[in-house]
Amino acid sequence: MNETAASRSTEQTTNLPELDPFAGFPPARTLTLSTRTKVFILLALAAGAILYLYLKFMAGDGSQSSPQKATEGFFQAAIDKDAKAMASFLYFASGEAAIEGMDKESVVQNWEKLFKEEPEIVLLQDFEVLDVQEVNDAATVVIKVKAGPEEVSGEQPYQLKKVKDKWFIDLFGQR
């Protein structure tokens, strides 16, 4: 008796087109992808995810998310003698507050020239962040640096300014 009831319910569902919302439409076509295409799509998605994570955590934003990170980024660029990277951590005022000859391009050119002509003078060997004091959108970071061929060390405070959620070293005092 169960077999006949099951066959009746199957007949009822196939014989009632008014209950099927897709009645009258052609059967759906399925798209089949080759294994090679599936692997390519998965690799592209994985590469995109890796690139996103790299940019999110390793590039620009993360390196200036705190006064300490901005200062460490600046001094690491100085050790690497990368003038453009050093300048990316500095605050440059625009308009009337700008100091003549202290624009980003001039500073980068001067540092690159100094790195080429007198590399022993700018021989920064190591640095250590000693103290960070943050108040609203301003901060003071005290750094201990070891520089020069004689490994002279000293402590120096740096003023930082927060602009659009990024910290910049205010090296030229352009508040």
Describe the structure.
The structure is a single chain. Helix content is 42%, strand content 22%. With 175 residues, the chain is an alpha+beta fold. The chain has a four-stranded antiparallel β-sheet, with helices on one face. Keywords: Membrane, Transmembrane, Transmembrane helix.
Which word captures the global form? Answer: elongated
* Order of helix and strand elements from N to C terminus: HHHHHHEEEE
**Strand neighbour order, sheet with most strands:** 1-2-3-4
Name the CATH architecture of the domain at 65-169. Answer: Roll
The total count of strands amounts to 4
Structural class: alpha+beta
| Continuous helix count | 6
Taking Cα atoms only, what radius of gyration do you get, to the nearest Å?
32 Å
Q: Roughly how many Å apart are the termini? A: 91 Å
Unreliable residue runs: none
Largest sheet: 4 strands, antiparallel
Could you report the average pLDDT, rounded to the nearest whole number?
77
* CATH topology label of the domain at 65-169: Nuclear Transport Factor 2, Chain: A
Helicity level: 40-55%
| CATH class categorisation of the domain at 65-169 | Alpha Beta
**In percent terms, what proportion of residues is strand?**
15-25%
Biased composition (Polar residues): 1-16
Region (Disordered): 1-21
Transmembrane segments: 39-55
Keywords: Membrane, Transmembrane, Transmembrane helix
Produce a short descriptive summary.
With 175 residues, the chain is α+β, with helices and mostly antiparallel strands. The chain has a domain at 65-169: Nuclear Transport Factor 2, Chain: A. 42% of the residues lie in helices and 22% in strands.
